[in-house]
Design a protein that fits this description.
By secondary structure, the chain is mainly alpha-helical. 83% of the residues lie in helices and 0% in strands.
Length: 166
């Protein structure tokens, strides 16, 4: 049993570190490279919507395309830190932090990494660190923690229901 616990701890640390590396790898791309990547995703989305609704194709640098591209970029921030917060939470829980402390430590970790991420971006050509991106990253973490809390409430109610039936 001890070996299983050690493996879980190692995997939790590795998953957090791997995800942080992915985020910072993306951070180090120039503004041009980063924008080209998000433009590919935005173009895929815009073309899919155009095909579904039988609409004319959207021009690459039109207002609609630019809006979708911005949404893609901001949603990427949100989702990266949403996922990372979940990984942090479960890692802290595996290391026996209480639920409330795991949530607090996760939030502190996310805010710290978001600040570091935006600071690093300010030194990358064509990128700048933005307070709004830190807020988006933090909101991703907060939503993750709300969802985790909802799952805890549901699990607690199920346990209480099982105990009443026995």
């Amino acid at each position: 049993m001890q070996n299983s616990s050690g493996i879980k701890k190692a995997l939790s640390i590795l998953s957090v570190l791997a995800f942080v590396c992915i985020i910072f790898y993306s951070t180090l791309h120039t503004g041009y490279e980063s924008n080209k990547t998000s433009e590919k995703v935005a173009l895929f989305i815009v073309n899919a919507i155009s095909d579904i609704f039988n609409l004319p194709p959207v021009k690459l640098h039109s207002g609609l395309f630019s809006a979708v591209n911005t949404i893609v970029r901001k949603l990427a921030h949100f989702m990266e830190y949403f996922i990372l917060c979940g990984l942090f939470y479960f890692a802290f829980r595996i290391f026996n932090a209480s639920r409330s402390k795991a949530k607090l430590y996760s939030l502190i970790s996310i805010i710290s990494l978001a600040c570091i991420d935006e600071t690093v971006q300010s030194f990358v050509p064509g990128r700048d660190g933005k307070l709004t991106d830190i807020l988006i990253d933090t909101s991703g973490a907060l939503i993750a923690l709300v969802i985790i809390r909802l799952f805890e409430i549901i699990a607690s109610r199920k346990r209480q229901g099982v105990e009443k039936n026995h």
